[in-house]
Amino acid sequence: MIDLEITDGVAFITLNAPATRNALNNELAGQFVAACDEADRDRQVGAAVIKGAAGTFCSGAERGHLDEVGRDPAEETRYAALGGIYRAFTRVGQLEMPTIAAVRGAAVGAGINLMLATDLRAELGPPRLPWAAALEVERGAQLWSLRRRVSQ
To answer: How is 35-62 classified by DSSP, letter by letter?
Structure first.
């Protein structure tokens, strides 16, 4: 489930599926897009924080979902099913307000895409971002996307 809480002009959008470590499936992705839509409609919202519940940011796409789509990803309904997950993180990049990924714990696969779709990424504890070391991502490099947003 996706929790949306709007407090003091900030929309907190939380992935809350601890049984799957906040993995995305079409239902959760649809709820996520709806929460983004609601945040955009509220003119009092000046920023959005994307986070995960229970110590994990997002463990990617739900494995059962990927297994089904992977059988024939070009087949029309399976292709559309995968597109639902992509829509979740592309929608974050389309939010009208600045966005922050509050990353605690793992960000894997689609979770990395979700995190990178935000304007700023904040690590809130020991991160589990194995890709960061492999790509030699420098802390603070994320400010580039925030500068891009502010200059638009």
So the answer is: HHHHHHH-TT--EEEEEESTT-SB--B-
Residue 150 clears pLDDT 90, i.e. is over it = no
Can you tell me the distance from the alpha carbon of 103 to that of 128, in angstroms, rounded to the nearest whole number? Answer: 9
pLDDT grade for 152, boundaries at 50, 70 and 90? low
How far, CA to CA in Å, does 152 sit from each of 20, 76, 101, 134, 146? 37, 37, 20, 31, 10
pLDDT at 14: 98
Low-confidence winner among 31-45, 48-62, 106-120 (lowest mean pLDDT) = 106-120
Residue 97 burial (CB count, 10 A): 16
Distances from the Cα of 51 to the Cαs of 97, 134, 151, in angstroms? 16, 23, 25
Task: Report the SS3 class of residue 107.
Answer: strand
What would you measure as the largest C-alpha separation in the chain, in angstroms?
Answer: 46
Angle at 12 between CA 9 and CA 13, to 5 degrees: 140
Element at 18 (helix H, strand E): none
Rounded-to-10 torsion of CA 120, 21, 109, 30:
-80
Model confidence, pTM: 0.83
